[in-house]
From TrEMBL:
GO terms for molecular function: hydrolase activity, hydrolyzing N-glycosyl compounds. Residues 4-298 form the Inosine/uridine-preferring nucleoside hydrolase domain. This is Nucleoside hydrolase. The keyword Transferase does not apply. Keywords: Hydrolase. PANTHER family: SI:CH211-201H21.5 (PTHR46190:SF1), SI:CH211-201H21.5-RELATED (PTHR46190). Pfam families: IU_nuc_hydro (PF01156). The keyword Hydrolase applies. Gene3D superfamilies: Ribonucleoside hydrolase-like.
Length: 309
């Protein structure tokens, strides 16, 4: 089984990704970032998920704001004010660890060098902070998979070419992209190419177990928003990144390129700039995932929701 360390800002698609991780892997810890909604909500949502699956995974609270500049926007208009569709879940029982997320990332990778796959599903603030504290972190990580970026400029934020996770904290993404010698990048546009058919997904929700019921509830607001905004089918960016983290052989097509983050542009701050033609002479570190085996991706999601085979 893969061993994972998940940095996340739950968030509806984060929740699906985490359910996939519980179904297919061991999770050493959940480190939590602000992003989709504020840190208080994202921490609480992570604990709600730990309760749902009956796990004892430690949850570590991370940075409440980006490294340098305040974020322009959150994603409450998609995920709900509380990030989980405003269902009004009770206060979770799962404990919150006292150690800050960046320190937990460093400690856990020191305890298990070379064993943990790091999966980043939110703004990269915690990871960047950990790297500033200890630049040797990448050498202890087995693999890094990042959900982030919009590699051909069709972003999903007010700064048009920027994707949300990179746009929320561009400096953090810059630090991470420069620090890791190699990583997998699952971008927003790949996500749109790997949406699930709505009717098919509804069938899974109807036949799955309590995880499916839970996900159906929290996803309703986001699904409505997407349907009204020309995003067809069930779009789950973080779930796609998790599929790639859980099973790299699911990738059918990818290209390794240098990726940089625009930190200044008035219209483009937070854009991921891909050097497709290798003009800049920078090291090509990002393996940009372009296509995965959709049937295997679907099977992983069904298993995570308890849909009978
Ligand atoms: C990313 O932003 C968030 O809204 C999602 O959870 C995902 O991580 C997509 O751009
Ligand atoms: Ca996320």
């Amino acid at each position: 089984k893969p061993q994972l360390l998940i940095d996340t800002d739950p968030g509806v698609d984060d929740a699906l990704a985490i359910l996939m991780a519980y179904a297919h892997a061991d999770i050493a810890g959940l480190t939590i970032a602000a992003g989709n909604v504020g840190l208080g909500h994202t921490v609480r949502n992570a604990r709600t998920l730990v309760d749902l699956v009956g796990a004892a995974t430690p949850v570590f609270a991370g940075c409440a704001a980006p490294l340098v500049r305040a974020a322009d926007e959150d994603a409450a208009f998609v995920h709900g004010q509380d990030g989980f569709g405003d269902i009004g879940f009770p206060e979770p029982a799962a404990a919150l660890a006292t150690e800050p997320a960046a320190l937990a990332l460093l400690r856990l990778t020191r305890e298990r060098p070379g064993e943990l796959n790091l999966v980043a599903l939110g703004p990269l603030t915690n990871l960047a902070l950990a790297l500033r504290l200890d630049p040797t972190l990448p050498a202890r990580v087995k693999r890094l998979v990042v959900m982030g970026g919009a590699v051909t400029g069709h972003g999903n934020t007010g700064k048009v070419p920027a994707e949300f996770n990179v746009g929320f904290d561009p400096e953090a993404a810059h630090v991470v992209f420069e620090a890791f010698p190699a990583f997998d990048l699952v971008d927003w546009e790949a996500t749109l190419r790997h949406a699930f058919d709505d009717a098919e997904f509804d069938g899974w929700l109807a036949t799955g177990d309590r995880r499916a019921t839970f996900f159906g509830k929290i996803a309703a607001t986001a699904r409505r928003y997407n349907a009204q905004h020309d995003r067809h089918g069930l779009v789950a960016a973080d779930a796609l990144a998790m599929a790639v983290a859980l099973d790299p052989t699911i990738v059918i097509r990818s290209e390794t390129r240098a990726v940089a983050v625009e930190l200044d542009g008035g219209l483009t701050r937070g854009a991921t700039v891909v050097d497709w033609k290798g003009r800049l002479g920078r090291p090509a570190r990002a393996n940009i995932v372009l296509e995965v085996d959709q049937a295997r991706f679907a099977a992983m999601v069904r298993h995570a929701l308890g849909v009978p085979t």
